[in-house]
């Protein structure tokens, strides 16, 4: 039913009880509504079908709210607010081929990591006099699995007598998984601030909405003299973890106030509507890796994968990547990692009754001390960096 308290779905048991009560009202108190009686059978059949309709009605009601909508319903709410779910993207980057001088390598050649993740050459290249040439590759499948560290792509799938080796001298990046409902909800809330313009909130929200961006912080110098970090008077520096440089610069330019200087270690040129190039600067924060080792005591209500649930809860608090590849922004840049909040995150998992252990910035060294994070730093933790022992 729907009232001032919201929508409450009638269950199969509720509907059956109401049906039996109505049968007694119509046919007398001594009417047989047991499981095998004719009336009881009819009541149970109708109660089951009606319970399905009530479940559908509940889903329709919940689909109208950001906190409870799922899948496509959540996507449609996002469109109304001007924010869209981040879809999975293909990783790409440069690779170096080695082989016979003057040999032309055509697009379509396959390479892979030892783990089996495959990449395809996207541009033709002719090997130089030293037998080497630089071209680009793109992962065959979208998602974060296509990202590769330097030197990780080393196998030529298609045998070719004129090619002897392939390697990536730079990291293969920008492969991302489809944004989960939980991550999209978090970004949905943050993005509401982007409806403004020329404010810190709108700037941070616009940059945070970019694909691949995991954390954003803007530091201002409102004084008439350089600050202690070397920022010029009346300037601001934007620290951004993740995302493509060109897209970040565009978002900063579109949301900054006129006449206010940007500052940072990375420089990008952005064209305004007249075609004039404007210089935009920003910086990358220092990532502080966090490690955790926990011993949790559980009761009978804990799920069989309670250890994974605890890991995911901690990743969602700090920020990082869960075991299934979902990336969470976590805390804000410069936010300390508090042991008390680690414990609180673990207690949100059903069945967890007690938590022991510690955290640290190096694997194998743990304590219950809080970890201080500086203004230009961001804490990150991955599920693989968390040890959980269940008792």
As residue ranges, the low-confidence spans are none
Could you estimate the helical fraction of the residues in percent? 25-40%
Strand line-up of the largest beta sheet? 9-5-6-8-3-10
Q: What is the rounded Rg?
A: 28 Å
Derived from helix and strand composition plus strand pairing, the structural class reads: alpha+beta
Task: Profile the largest sheet.
Answer: 6 strands, antiparallel
**Domain unit count:** 4
**For the terminal residues, how far apart are their CA atoms?**
42 Å
Total strands: 23
Shape: globular
Tell me the fraction of residues in β-strands, as a range: 25-35%
Helix run count: 8
State mean pLDDT (0 to 100 scale). 91
Describe this entry's structure for a reader.
It comes from Paenibacillus mucilaginosus 3016. Residues 95-175 form the Baseplate protein J-like barrel domain. The protein is an alpha+beta fold and 391 residues long. The protein folds into four domains: 2-63, no CATH class; 92-168; 196-284, 2-Layer Sandwich (GMP Synthetase, Chain A, domain 3); 288-390, no CATH class. It is built from eight helices and 23 strands.
């Amino acid at each position: 039913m729907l009232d001032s308290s919201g929508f409450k779905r009638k269950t199969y048991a509720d509907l059956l009880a109401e049906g039996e009560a109505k049968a007694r009202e119509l046919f007398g108190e001594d009417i047989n509504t047991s499981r095998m009686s004719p009336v009881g059978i009819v009541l149970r059949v109708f109660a089951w079908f009606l319970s399905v309709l009530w479940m559908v009605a509940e889903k329709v009601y919940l689909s109208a709210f950001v906190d409870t909508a799922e899948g496509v319903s959540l996507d449609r709410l996002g469109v109304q607010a001007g924010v869209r779910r981040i879809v999975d993207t293909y990783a790409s980057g440069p690779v170096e081929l080695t082989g016979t001088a003057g040999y032309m390598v055509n697009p379509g050649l396959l390479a892979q990591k030892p783990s089996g993740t495959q990449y395809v050459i996207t541009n033709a290249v002719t090997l130089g006099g030293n037998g080497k040439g630089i071209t680009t590759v793109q992962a065959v499948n979208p998602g974060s699995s296509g990202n590769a560290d330097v030197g990780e792509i080393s196998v030529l799938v298609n045998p070719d007598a004129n090619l002897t080796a392939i390697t990536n001298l730079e990291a293969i990046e920008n492969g991302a998984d489809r944004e989960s409902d939980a991550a999209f909800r978090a970004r949905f809330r943050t993005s509401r601030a982007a409806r403004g313009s020329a404010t810190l909130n709108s700037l941070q929200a616009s940059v945070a909405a970019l694909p691949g961006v995991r954390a954003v912080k803007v530091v201002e110098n409102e004084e008439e003299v350089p600050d202690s970090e070397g920022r010029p008077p009346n300037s601001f520096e934007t620290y951004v973890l993740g995302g493509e440089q060109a897209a970040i610069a565009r978002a900063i330019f579109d949301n900054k106030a006129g006449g206010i200087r940007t500052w940072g270690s990375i420089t990008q040129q952005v064209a305004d509507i007249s075609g004039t190039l404007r210089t935009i600067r920003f910086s990358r924060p220092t990532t502080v890796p966090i490690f955790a080792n926990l011993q949790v005591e559980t009761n009978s209500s804990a799920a069989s994968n309670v250890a994974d649930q605890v890991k995911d809860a901690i990743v969602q608090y700090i920020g990082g990547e869960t075991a299934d590849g979902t990336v969470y922004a976590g805390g804000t840049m410069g936010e300390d990692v508090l042991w008390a909040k680690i414990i609180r995150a673990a207690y949100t998992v059903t069945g967890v009754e007690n938590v022991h252990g510690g955290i640290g910035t190096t694997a194998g060294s743990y304590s219950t001390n809080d970890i201080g994070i500086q203004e230009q730093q961001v804490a990150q933790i991955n599920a693989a960096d968390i040890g959980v022992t269940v008792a």
